């Protein structure tokens, strides 16, 4: 019986010239799109919009983002009850699964990275299942598939699967074993036999192998346990602002936060890139942008907002501790409001604060993405943020 790590060296697709991940990492500032695969998107507001959770709408967004040169797309994973977070809009009652969504998108896209968010500790998942599914998607997509590993921070989710919530740091110990075993299946040229604390495998084998060593690995975290995990396993880490969504407070807090993550990765002799999620409210002038912002807030579904905020306070996640109730109305880990020039200036400041990129969200996705491509992207290129 061998150790999970004996004679084993991880190889990241980031280090393989020609891999899709290596290619996008040549960009000075990464650009992703946070897909609205749940009803209400990121904003529990009743203001009119086109945003839709169905696959065809999200496929259109992904193809538009790919045509604009975006680097990646991914979606949220939730297990909400009937009625979602309630209110008139029954916020986030409906959604499509992010794993199935990215699998379907692999057949209709050609360049953009596709990241599947997955609760790996719920239900009967075994690392061998996901190793085979992931290797298949890697091959189908030409090496563009990746896993955003989620451990689950809400006890109601765990109860849906008939189990009590697992303590925060224990979840990361489980994730450590799960993902290390995934890597063995992907990278080893021999069958894997292992008996661990949480999972075991006798002569486990996955073929065919991923195209560029292994798929891209991602996690989202703000805790020390999550950062330690990311430093050993992830290629990208989705971060939030420790100071909430207001941009100036976020910019003051982010340099220390991102430095902490870089230092953890350096101890492992690895490079870890950070991405943060801004809600972008952009119009030709600052006044028009703030008028749009205020219209979203004025149309808030108060019951849905209250329930959504209360739910965030019940979770043991440490990523959103600085976020306030009213910041949930518009949504986003941070909020960028202004003219195209102001949006680009904020992104430059985020880069200076240690963020390696953004995965943007919008209120009215299709037209707002189109305007972003028309008005903001050219300025990002002029500013040296994009090639």
The outline comes out as: globular
CATH C-level category? Alpha Beta
- The CATH architecture category equals Alpha-Beta Barrel
Widest sheet: strand ordering: 1-2-3-4-7-8-9-12
SS summary, helix count: 13
Number of strands: 12
Largest sheet: 8 strands, parallel, barrel
Report the uncertain regions.
none
> Which sequence of SSEs, written as H and E, runs from N to C?
HEHEHEHEHHEEEHEHEEHHHEHEH
Helical residues, percent:
40-55%
Mean of all residue-level pLDDT scores: 94
* Cα distance spanning the termini: 49 Å
For this structure, what is the CATH homologous superfamily?
A: Luciferase-like domain
Overall number of structural domains:
1
Structural class of the secondary elements? alpha/beta
Strand content: 5-15%
Radius of gyration (Å) = 20 Å
Q: What name does the CATH topology carry?
A: TIM Barrel
Keywords: Flavoprotein, FMN, Monooxygenase, Oxidoreductase
Domain Luciferase-like: 32-356
GO molecular function, one term: monooxygenase activity
Organism: Erwinia typographi
